[in-house]
Every structure is written in C-alpha cells, then in structure tokens.
Design goal:
This protein is α/β, with parallel strands linked by helices and 264 residues long. It is 32% helix and 27% strand. The protein has nine helices and twelve strands. A six-stranded mixed beta sheet has the order 6-7-8-3-9-10, with helices on both faces. A four-stranded antiparallel beta sheet has the order 2-1-4-5, with helices on one face. Strands 11-12 form a two-stranded antiparallel ribbon. The radius of gyration is 19 Å and the shape is globular.
C-alpha cells in the first residue's frame, strides 16, 4: 500500500506560484487523472508529487513522510516517473532502455543480478515488447516507443507510477493502446497510476479518480461522474457542453452544446 498526498502545497518556479495551497489525496491501487486547461498547474503538481519541484509552502508526503526529506534512492524505488516527451539516447535498444529502470536498485558493489533480469523481462512481457527487445528505440512507431518508456518505468518496480501526458503526440489508435496498457497494469498488478491527460473522455473512461484543476487550485475531485458536470466544464474550461453517458462504458462524455456554424 502506498499513500501519496499534498497538504496546503504552494508550488511554482522561482517566486512565481503556479499551484496555490492544494490538498490532494491519491487513492492507493487506483488510476487518477489530473485534468484542466493549459497553464492550470497539472504538470507542476505532478512534478511536485515526484519531488522534482519543492513546495515553497505546505508538504508532499509519501506514506506519511515528507518526500523531500527521504533519500533519493528510496523515493526512486517507490515512485516511478514517465515525463512528457522523453528522448532516448541514440542507438539504444528497447531492452537497454528498459534496463535503465533498474538503476535505483543498483549499488557500487552489486552487479547486475538475476532479479534485475527478471524485472526487465517481466516489464517487456507486460508491455508486449519481448519480440522487439533488440530493436533500436528511435526506429519504433510512436505507440511502441511509448510502451518502451512505460516498460522502463515498470522495470523500476515501484508501486506508484506517475505519467505526464502519456498520450501526447500519438494518433488515436496509439493513444488507446497506451491507455489500455495502463488499465491492465492497474487491474492485474495493482499499480497506483497518476496521469496528466487533456482528453476528458479518456480521463472519464480510464480513471477511477479525477482531479480537475483551475487557476492553480483543485476545482473538484472524485469520480468522473462527480467531477464532470456541465457546470464544472463551463466554469473550468470556459466551454458550453452537454455531459452524456458513453454508450459503451456509461462514463461521461463531454459534447459541445452547439453545432459547427451555428451562432450561439
């Protein structure tokens, strides 16, 4: 069990606060989606959760401990991060990239072990990359590359995975390929997943818990049904819409309330 939370956290860059006094609780063993308009503080909050940013006020806690007072290696063994648009070193193969996820488990006097190899092969298998493990990452399709990065995070073997816009720049088929993979990892392995996403329909379809941000604060949090109301969409996204059920899953779909070319 892993518990990640913030209390009255003020987070920003230099003297400029982006996130202001937020309280966030990440449910254990669930998928959480952080949504909101551009510039609202989604990625800033995510970076603070992995301690890439330090709050100027308030705290970020992992299992009750201030994450910024914990040893770096201990945090890396408990929380994995997939940043937005990561870049692989030239010529690196899929397996070599995935093996880098074992870095937090390495020690000066500890060579590569059978447990490291098992973790890497398990990550490759979970992401359906075993057959292309010797291919160069730069030569893969967008969906395959993203799966390779997710596999690296998996090999890190952390109960918590944080992903910053994991579907950015992917076509729609690859977007759903990645989201289905994350869903399987959560369902079969119990991984706690936190992801920043732009597509509200995808957030509603795949997340158990949604955090909607607006102007650096949490505007609402809860299930998709609780968060995605017509009032919230209008207030947070400045967008007039109807909220209707997905015909497949029953989760909310955001539909524009006017047709193209029709003056409101």
């Amino acid at each position: 069990m892993s518990r990640l939370e913030t209390r009255k956290a003020v987070i920003g860059y230099g003297d400029k606060p982006i996130v202001r006094g937020v309280d966030v609780d990440v449910p254990d063993g669930k998928i959480t989606a952080i949504v909101g308009p551009n510039g609202c503080g989604k990625s800033t909050l995510l970076r603070a959760l992995i301690r890439l940013l330090t709050p100027s006020e308030g705290t970020v806690a992992l299992d009750g401990q201030d994450i910024h007072r914990m040893p770096t290696r201990e945090v890396a063994r408990r929380v994995g991060l997939l940043p937005q648009s990561p870049i692989a070193p030239a010529g690196i193969t899929v397996k070599e990239l995935v093996a880098r996820g074992r870095t937090p488990h390495q020690k000066v006097l500890r060579p590569w072990s059978s447990s490291d190899e098992t973790a890497v092969m398990s990550a490759l298998h979970s992401t359906n990359l075993t057959d292309i493990q010797d291919e160069v990452v730069d030569q893969l399709s967008g969906g395959q590359r993203q799966r390779a990065w997710i596999a690296m995070t998996l090999a890190q073997d952390t109960p918590l995975m944080l992903l910053d816009e994991p579907t950015t720049y992917l076509d729609i088929a690859h977007q759903y390929e990645v989201l289905e993979l994350l869903h399987r990892l959560n369902e079969r392995q119990g991984r706690t997943i936190v992801m920043v996403v732009h597509d509200l329909h995808q957030a509603a379809r795949y997340a158990h818990h949604v955090i909607a941000m607006h102007d650096g604060v949490v505007a609402a949090s809860g299930t998709a049904e609780e968060v995605f109301t017509e009032d919230l969409v209008s207030r947070v996204f400045n967008f007039d819409a109807r909220v209707v059920p997905d015909p497949v899953t029953g989760t909310p779909i955001i539909v524009p309330s006017h047709r193209p070319g029709v003056t409101r």
